[in-house]
Every structure is written in structure tokens, then in C-alpha cells.
Amino acid sequence: MKNLLLASALILGSSLGFAGRVDIHPQAFDPGGWKVDVQFMDVMGSAYLLAHGNGIRCLDAKAVANIPESGEWRVYVRSRSWVEGAGAFKVKVGGKILDGTFGVTQSEWAWEDGGVVALEKGTIGISLVDCDGFAGRCAGVVFVKDGDAPEGPLSIESANVDETIETDFAIVGGGVPGVTAALAAARRGVKTAIIQDRPVLGGNASAEIRVWSAGEARYDIVREVRGWFMNGEGDMKVSDLNRMRIVQDEENLTAVLSTRVFAAEKNPDGSIASVKALDWKRNKIVRIKAKLFCDATGDGWLGYYAGADWRMGREAGAEFGEKYAPEKADSQTLGASLMWTSAEANTDMPFSAPWAEKHACGIKALQGGWDWEYGIRNDVIAEGEHVRDRLLLAVYGSFSLAKKDPGNARKILRFVPFVLAKRESRRLMGDWIFKESDVAEKRPFEDAIASGSWSIDLHYDDAIKGVDFITTCRQPHFGRYYIPYRSIYSRNIPNLFMVGRCFSCTHVGLGSPRVINTLAQLGVAAGEAVALCFKYDCKPRDIYTKGHYRELQDLLGGEFPGRPDPRLKGWAIVDDETPDVVFFKGNWERKHNPNGEQVGDESTFAKKGAISAEYKLPVERPGRYALKMRVPYSPFVKHPSSTQIEIMSNGAKKIIKVDQTEKMGEWREIGVFELEKGSTLTINAKESKGTIIADGFAVVLQ
Ligand SMILES: Cc1cc2nc3c(=O)[nH]c(=O)nc-3n(C[C@H](O)[C@H](O)[C@H](O)COP(=O)(O)OP(=O)(O)OC[C@H]3O[C@@H](n4cnc5c(N)ncnc54)[C@H](O)[C@@H]3O)c2cc1C
Question: Ligand 1 center to residue 367 CA distance, Å?
Fold first, then answer.
């Protein structure tokens, strides 16, 4: 229908839907200060422009239309009123502002009649003029000469393809797990493309959203590209730049950014042949052909387009024997968030959003963290725009209330994301559905490819009575567990992997591995498995059924159930949790570490009043031994330590000082010593400074 001539016309910025009609797609605009919002396009039918200025009016978005004949044309503007009292904008055609105000009447997306304008044949400029900086939105402009009003969105579904990219492995979705999959495959020589709908890589971990990368990061690639800052910190931009640089440097890897995949094309055997995507920055339709694909979209979009089996919502407890699941299945998921911050300007800054105040449920706030969460009871895909908007109302309303306090006169909104941070939606089904007991009972999977030690972190919306946008979490801990390879390939699409939060799991099963570093391990495993698929000319499932998973574990490195880490051959390890071997004096605290990477399940931190931790070293015969140390990586430890370690052997004491904050999470050598049976190692907390941690030590005969 309206997109018949879209492909050629898109390049000009406008398309002739049919004689007497000119379509201006939202992605044909130079957005100026508006944002091109593609996150809900599968649901509402197109991209749109969002005037996300947090109360400061956005610079005009501009496009050029090619008018085929002179005469009177009726202008239609696609918009919606997202809240009563804000979101208005004007439209300028050929330098003249139309009479109407848009975005203030209908609550659902629809075409608003902008009246008739007299236009000359040739090109004219169109501008969207934001009235208030509060999320006004426009999904296109259409000029009609003697015809009917347009119906429905300016869809691109039937648009012609402008460009084709051919590759061996294509990953859709550029969160950290997508990036690790891409790097792992590319570094094994596989021609790889990663397609990401944002201009930056990182997904929730990017500076567009600012989620802290937590969980075990056992593979080097994860450490290379994870974020380095805590929730909400603007410095995430630095991690983004690092990630982008690493990807750009990779010879076999093409990053296709600002490009949203919207369809999958299949081969006769049911496998995926190619995907179609909108490059919304260049306004082009791109086809990406590949032999193997990976869904890293978080929402399972690629699997959904391809017809992969998926689930969404909470399973009934009885289905998988899950204690933390509800008795009856329902459609609830973890909710979505906008983590926002404010800053202090050096002069008074006006801010008032009275229309939002009633949506703040009485909360006055200057910032909002992970618990500003909504949508647990909504479908975060079908109602994603509503969920995001409800959170925007909470932010603007509570900030507007806080601004009434004269002490907050200089406060200004520093950062409010417009990209919704989602925790859970579709989960694609593999040959194994990872579940609560896999975490709680630490099932020793023969095909383990990743490990985690985060709690089963489930969220509930019963935090504050009468407030629907603040949640609470309950977090039972179980220590280290493993995730099997069978959970990262689709059970019914033969060439599809899935990594990130859409891997194969139950709602409760996702509760622990859903942290970024742990999910990014799945990415590394998928990338390495892709290399094996090419080596053996086989499908993802064959890596398991034909026994190649042992080779996959070799490629990944480290220890797995029933397979000790070959790099630690000949090492004798002692850990703070080993009974009758380590003796603590004074005040120490055993802790689970949010990012894992410790030896064993936990480690022990010196508290005020800690005296010493004495280890019996596992030495059987006298000799010269390298002494290795490992403590968990902790994002909270920012200052160097000076930890006094005393080695007692042959009646002599050797004292060394070590900075435990160096190479946290990795084994490092701290010296070579003559040791004998009965030698001991003591952390002398009283003579140490900074964060002092008792975790793992190893001796290796030289
Ligand atoms: C508020 C909040 C707080 C959290 N706190 C923590 C925490 O403290 N620590 C932690 O480790 N984890 C935390 N999490 C969980 C963690 O952020 C997610 O589990 C993780 O980011 C999932 O990674 P992902 O790559 O699967 O998805 P995402 O990070 O969502 O990345 C997927 C990417 O794919 C893109 N995409 C989607 N569809 C398409 C398409 N069709 N075409 C192209 N690209 C597409 C998306 O834009 C996105 O950039 C939190 C989550 C939220 C929401």
C-alpha cells in the first residue's frame, strides 16, 4: 500500500505512496534534538521521533519532501497524546507554521489533520517544532492531494532492500552478551556481523541506560567489554568507547549500528536464511545473510520472527518444581526501569511538571535507581511504550514535587533515559530449560559452558503501598552453579543460538544468571561454538549430541564439573572455606561476592577488630614453591590495600606486603619460597591497611 515506492524515495527523504501522496517517514528526518525511537516499532508499526528534552525544548527535527505537482495538499501528522498537559509540538511546512498543535488530542497513535497548504512543485522543508521538551512524539508526515487520509503506520515491512551484507555468523542485538559472542567468533576467524538498533554497543550496560555489569566474568572477553561503573553513573560512556574500539579493531567483525532487525527470512529446512533491518540513521533497508544466527536482543525478537519456541511470564511452581515460582502460572515478569539522576546547577533552575505530579504517588525525589521499576504486571513488549511513559511520569512528577522545596532550586535533571531498561520478556526455548534447581542444587552439567554465583534475584511490586513504580527484591543465595550449552541454542530453529536474557530458562531460572557478566559468558560460549560448527560443518545441536562440547570447554578454558582447569595442574589450593585448614582470629565476615570470581563460593573480609587469618599450606614435601593468591573482583573496592602476609617455614618468618586490589578475580604470583610440610601463611590484619580479604592461596612446586 503506502510503501510501494518506498525504497527509492527513502533516499530523498520522502516517498510517493501513490500518485497524489507523499510520505515522510520518521527516519527520513534529521532529528535535530529529537530522538529516533525504534524500541517499540514492532508494536506500533514504525519508528518515531521523540522530543526527549526533559523540559528543555528540543531543536527542530527537519526533513525535505519532494512535491510532485503544484496545488493544494492536505497535511497529516501521525502522533499521540501521551499525557494530558504535555508533549505538544507544531509543524512547519515551507517555513510556515501550521495552525494546529499536534500530540495533544488522541491518546492512541493516529493521523491528525493539519489542514490544507498550497505547495509548489519541487522540494520543501518540513520541521517539527517541540513546544515543551516533554516527550512529544511524531511518527511521520503525509501530504495528500485529493485523496483519503492515510491509515495505519508508515510501515517498512514491504519495502525493497537497499543493501545486502553477506557473512557467516550474524548476531542480532548488541548488549554485552551479543558483543562477547561476536568477538569470540571473530577471533576464531569466523566472518561475523553484529546488528544493533542503538548507536552504541552495550544494551543495558551502555551509557544510554547505565546498568552496572555484575556477575561472574570468568572469560577474558567478558572482562574486556563489561562496564566499569555502578548503576546510573555517567562515566559508563568510557566503557562504551572502550567496547566500541575493541569491536572496531576486530578484523573479522562488522558492527552494523543504528539498525533494527524487523523480519527473518527462512530456508526450506526451517533455518534462518537472512534478516531484514532498518538502518534508521541512513534510512536504508538492509538484508543480512548468514549461515548461523544468534538472538541477543534480550526480547527474543529474532527467534520470534523466525518462529522459535518461546515463553513469557511465570511458570507454575509444579511445572519445574520451583519453590520461588507462584502456585499458578501467570503473565508477570520482572519489570523495567529508567534509572535517572539530577545535578546542581550554579544558578536557580526552573522546573515544573504539574501535569505529572499526580502520577508521582506522593513521592518527591531527586534521583531513581534500579527499584524505580514498573511493568511487572504488564506485557513489557506489547505495552512497552506505556511502561516507559509511566516511568517518565513518575520521574517528572516526583522531581516536580521535589523542586517545590526551595533547597532544590538549583537542581536540574541531569539524565533521564528514554530507552527502557528491561529485565525480562521473551525467553527462547532450547533443549534444556534452565531452572531454579539448577542453581539451588548446583547441577554438574557435563556440557557446562558458564558459571554464576549471583542470588536468585526476583522483584516484587509490594514495596510501598499505593506506589506502583517502586519495587523490592528478594535474593536467596546458593553459591556457584553452572549453565549448560543446551540452553543456548533453539530447540526448533536449527541454526539459531540465543544469549543474554532470552536464553532458555524459566522465569525463576533467569533470576540468577540474568546479570550482565554471567550472560556475557553465554555469548563467549556461543561464539566459540560457532567456530566449532564451521570446523565440523555441523549445527548448534550437534555440538552437544556429537560430543564436541568437551572441545568447546577446552576452547573456553577454566574448570567445569568433572573437568579440572588444566591450567591449574600440579597446583595445591587452599581456600578460606576449607574446614580445619584456615583459622581466623578477631572480627572477620564471610561474604558472598556480587561479582563472583572468588575461589569457592565465598570469601572472608577483615572487619574492624580483625587480627589474623592463618592458613595451613598444602605442602607435602620440602621444596621451592611459587605462592599464588586470588581474591574476588569487587566493584566496591577502589583504593589500594597494603596487606601483610607472613610465611612461616623451617621456623623462619618471611613478611611480604601485597596490594590485594591488583588483578582482583585472577590468580597472581606473590613470591617463591622454600616451604616444608607444616608451613603456614598468615594474613596479619592488624599490620595491614585497606580492604583485606582472605580467599584462595595456591602452592606450585618449582
Ligand atoms: C534497571 C535494571 C537494573 C539492573 N541491574 C543489574 C545490575 O546491577 N547488574 C547486572 O549485571 N545486571 C543488572 N540488570 C540485568 C541486566 O541489565 C540484563 O539482564 C542484561 O543487560 C541483559 O543483556 P542482554 O544483552 O540480553 O539485553 P540488553 O542489555 O537489553 O541488550 C540487548 C540489545 O539488543 C538491542 N535490540 C533489541 N531488539 C533489537 C532488534 N530487533 N534489532 C537490533 N537490536 C535489537 C537492544 O536495543 C539492546 O541494546 C539490571 C537490569 C535492569 C533493567
Answer: 21
Q: Whose CA is nearest to atom 23 of ligand 1?
A: 500
Q: How far does the centroid of ligand 1 lie from the alpha carbon of residue 182, in Å?
A: 16
Q: What is the pTM of this model?
A: 0.95
Among 295-309, 422-436, 581-595, whose mean pLDDT is lowest? 581-595
| 190 in contact with ligand 1, CB cutoff 6 A | no
Question: How far away, in angstroms, is 550 Cα from ligand 1 center?
Answer: 30
**What spacing in Å lies between the alpha carbon of 228 and ligand 1's midpoint?**
16
SS3 state of residue 95:
coil
pLDDT in tens, 597-608: 889 888 999 999
Residue 370 CA, closest ligand 1 atom number: 1
- Give SS3 for 183: helix
From ligand 1's centre to the CA of 211, what distance in Å?
Answer: 8
For atom 35 of ligand 1, the residue with the nearest CA is 173
Please name the residue whose Cα sits nearest to atom 41 of ligand 1.
261
Percent of the chain with pLDDT over 90: 93
DSSP string over 344-379: E-SS------HHHHGGGTT---S-B-TTBEE-TTS-
The domains located in the chain, with CATH, are 6-144 (2.60.120.260), 163-313+427-455+477-556 (3.50.50.60), 336-422 (no CATH), 570-701 (2.60.120.260)
Distances (CA, A) of 480 to 5, 59, 589, 633: 56, 50, 19, 15
Return the closest-CA partner of residue 77 out of 38, 134, 117: 117
d(Cα 88, Cα 36) in Å, to the nearest integer?
17
Q: Which atom belonging to ligand 1 lies closest to the Cα atom of 424?
A: 19
Ligand 1 centroid to residue 502 C-alpha, Å: 10
Residue nearest to atom 21 of ligand 1 (CA): 204
For a mutational test of ligand 1's pocket, the pick from 516, 518, 519, 633, i.e. the residue with the most ligand atoms closer than 8 A to its C-beta, is 516
Q: Round to whole Å and give the CA distance between 399 and 414.
A: 12
Distance 278 CA to ligand 1 centre (A): 20
Residues in Cβ contact with 366 at an 8 Å cutoff, skipping those fewer than 6 apart: 342, 399, 402, 408, 411
Residue 8 reports pLDDT greater than 60:
no
Helix axes 516-536, 176-187, angle to 10 degrees: 30
Element (H, E) at 48: strand 48-52
Confidence of residue 638 (pLDDT cuts 50, 70, 90): confident
571-575 sheet: strands from edge to edge: 571-575, 696-701, 623-630, 668-675
d(CA 266, CA 277): 15
